[in-house]
Each structure stands twice: as structure tokens, then as C-alpha cells.
Amino acid sequence: MTPETKKAIRSAADEHAVANGCYYSEAHAKHVVDFFQDHLRLTRGTWAGKPFVLMDWQRHDILEPLFGWLREDGTRRFRLAYIAVPKKNGKSCLSAGVALYCLAGDHEQGAEVYCAAADRNQATIVFRHASSMAKRSPMLQPHIVPRDAAKVLSMPRTESFLRVLSADSYTAEGIDASAVIFDELHTQKTRSLWDCLRYSGAARRQPLIVAITTAGWDRLSICYELHERAQQVLEGIVEDDAMFAYIRAADPDDDWTDPAVHARVNPSLGTIFSAADLAHDCKEAQESGSKENTFRRYRLNEWTEQDLRWLQMEKWDACAEPFDVDALKGRKCYGGLDLSTTTDLSALVLLFPPDVGEPDYKLLSWFWAPRERAELRARTDRAPYLVWAKEGLMTLTDGAVVDYDVIRRDINALADKYGIETLAVDRLFQGAQLCTQLVSDGLDLKAHGMGFMSMAGPTAAFEGLVLKGIMRHGGNPIMRWMASNVTVETDAAGNIKPSKKKSRERIDGITAAVMAVGLADLVAERKSVYEDRGVIVLGGKSHG
Q1: What global pTM score does this model have?
Q2: pLDDT tens digits for 168-208?
Q3: Cα(62)–Cα(187) distance, rounded to whole angstroms?
Q4: Residues 207 and 270 in one domain
Q5: Domain that holds residue 294
Q6: Which residue pairs from 143-151 have beta carbons closer than 8 angstroms and sit at least 24 positions apart in sequence?
Q7: Eight-state DSSP code of residue 254
Q8: Cα dihedral angle (174, 176, 179, 182), rounded to 10 degrees?
Q9: DSSP H helical segments within 119-272, as ranges?
């Protein structure tokens, strides 16, 4: 064993590789480092045009071991790299530099380098950095022909190219990849593109596929599969000399709000972004359940159980103080009716705006389910439908499908008791006949959309009321169960809405409550005595 190899050993995996004939070459490691620092220029922000001076973690933890370790035949040891670090740590620039090295510095005739991702826009991010770097490089610029519109960099002298490839437009035909840079692997909905590229360079001398990603939430995905294997390689559970693994992430038992954890997990902290910026993002995440999972995934690289968790349960529980239900008789209120399929839960939620002199909104909830379905779920899913029915929290109708006549009877009885102004129903609602009957019974029904345009405002307002501690729900256990189930979807503008598709269990009551908030938001007064007290006012210009 040479001294440089002995010095480079960092793990049991390295020792195993040496036993199999692998060795470390400082010359190869220096070659890639010099390529970055002597020939590449940064392209964005404060550092635009400046030499690509590698941070310690980029140099010593990634590039030197990835390219410095060789096999007995002199080719690269590693064929697959999994690199997982939080966002904003310079992954895109590093990825672009690796792509250019594999194109121009790897001594590969006819190199085919691919910037791959789930969609073309994502795949283009690394390409844009690579193209800008090539144009700014005195060494590369004369030899590389950029075709930015086609998302291709070609190198005629070696008949090589770098191009974009995405899951929404790829074809496996003719791919002979010498290197693949796979950006944000966690966004891959299927494994098709990965499987296509994984062995597309089998005929190459030393093919390399590099997955650089942040954490995701889908534990059935190709990214999580690769993440788990990388962990096993790092821990010495699996012996795989060809896999390079690098993971910077918070541990499950870490305090995600601890600045020391932030510093340990983010290797570029203090260079690319400041501790103050990260602390600000952390504070926002602590104040909003919908931002907590986002922060933990993107800024701490944690795999979460859900895509976007919404409500903070401690905030929900703080609103559980009982109130006098009888005092609400005859009070004006707005309702949300979520009629699910005939075989599952239906929910009605009434929202009572604060009366003069009161700070709180109040919720009352009712639920219906078919008895046979409830008995089945009690056995298979351990959802305590039968207990809730026994406690009077849920009405079970006979048979395998819900009896809409029972729901109609109960809603009319509630309309006699409370001053239901309007009842919101899904615009594409189930039970159209029931809704027609309710209108004939004298209730005012309003169709409510389920898209972002209709749901984003009420969702944000509902969350705000819970966070302010002024959405009193009386501790209803079914509503608490549903609140804990909610996962939200987000659009490009950052709007959120509850997602039945993504949520792990039923959320019908919460959906109905959000619709009720939407109604109140439409009809509430524009001014309120509570605005001056910092209380969220539905219908006002500000929800802060």
C-alpha cells in the first residue's frame, strides 16, 4: 500500500476497496482540482467571473475521493455517486463543473455527458451553469461550441457533447453515456429515466453517474432506494467498492431548530449564505406547520413523512378549550359540506364568526359513515369509528353505503337550530340529488371550487386562525385525527391547499372547515373591531 493510499483511507469501505486492488492517486485528484480552480469561472452573483475556488468540503470530501480513487486497471473506482446536501450549498455549480470535467478533462473520446432531471426546466439549471462556465473559461471557450437553444455543448475536437435530458422528453435510443449528472433525483416520479441511464454507459471505459439531490418524502421512490443504499455503504453494512456516498443531513433525534445542527449539516454556511438567513427561515418554519417540512427537507436534508405537513398539532390542541354549544343556538354561521364517496366519511362543519366582544371563531362538526365500512375500518385500519359512534361523534347509517336521507334529515335539524347563512359544497360534489333536495328544503348552497384559486385564500386564513389560537374547535377527536392527517399541495406561487390525494388518511372535516372559512371570507365585513388588535379578520385586506 502506497503512503498516499494509506492517507486517503477514511472508512471500512475504503479498506475493503484496497483489499480488492484499488488505490489512491494524488495526481488524479489534483488533476480535477486544478481543472476547477485554474480553468472554471463562477457565473452568478457576487462571485461571477471569479475563479472556481473550491470550498473544503467540495475539494476534500467530494472531488478528490471521487476522482482520485482508482481500480487496479487504472480506471476510476467509482461508477455511481450519491451526493445529498441541503439546498443553497452550491450543488448546481459543483454539478456543472463535474459535467464539464467529464466532457473536456476526462480524456474520453466521443464523450456523451447528460444533465438529467425530472423535467426539462430542472435539467436546464445545471446546463446553464455549465454553458456559462465554458464561455468564461480561457481554456474551454475555444474548443466548446454552445447551442443554448438546443441545450447542447459540443466539443468537435473529440467528437463529444453535453446535453440536457429529462424524464418528460427522453428516449433510450442511442444513449451511450460516459457520464450522467442527475439533478434533484428526489423529484423523479418514476424510475424509468434512472433505469435507462444507470447502465447506458456499460460499453464505456469508466462510466460515471452522479446523483446530486436534497431529501424527499416519497419512500417508495428511486431516490430513497438509493439513499438507503448509500447509508448502508457509509455504515459498512453493504460492501460496494463502486458506490461513492456523501450525505450531510440532520439526524432523526436532532433538534431541527438548533443552530449547531444547521452549521453541521450545511457545509457552505458562512460562505454562500449566512447563519442569519438560515435562522430567519427556521423561525418562519417554527411559526407555520406548512413550512416546517419544507425547511427540514430543503435546509436540513431530512427525509420527511409527508411532502408538506400543514398544521402544527400543538397549535391545534391549544384551540381545544370547550365552549358553550347551547349559546350558539340561533347564531349566524357558515357551513362546509364534504360529501365523499358513498362508501366513506361525509362531514359537515359549521363556522361561527366571533360575536361583538368575542375574539374567537368556533367550529362544530358532524360526521356520517356507512356502518359496514366503519366496522371494516375498525378491524383493518384501527380507525376508531365505532368508538366515535358510541360517543355520539359520528352517525353510522345502515348498510355498505351512506344513507343520504339521514344526512338530509340531520342537516335540516341543524338548520332549525342554528342560523346557517350558506352551505358550501364541492363544485364537483358527490350526491347531487341530496344537494338539490337541500336547496328545496330552503338552504342556500354555494358551489365551492377545490383548486388553488378557490382554496388557497381560505386555507391560509384557516391556518392563521389556528396559529393565532382563535379557532375554537372544542377538542373534537375526529377533527384532531383529520388535522394530523393533512398534507398540503403547493403551487409555483407558494399557495397551499389540503390534498386528499397526498394526505395519509381522511381529512374531510378539515376540507369542510376550510370551505366554511371561504364562505365567511366572501361575506364578512371589510372592517372589524379586531383588526386593531392584530387578530386575523376574514374578508379584510390583511390576514396578518
Answers
A1: 0.66
A2: 665 656 788 999 999 999 988 788 888 888 888 888 999 99
A3: 23
A4: no
A5: 259-305
A6: 143/104, 144/103, 144/104, 151/115, 151/120, 151/123, 151/124, 151/127
A7: S
A8: 40
A9: 120-136, 192-198, 222-234, 259-265
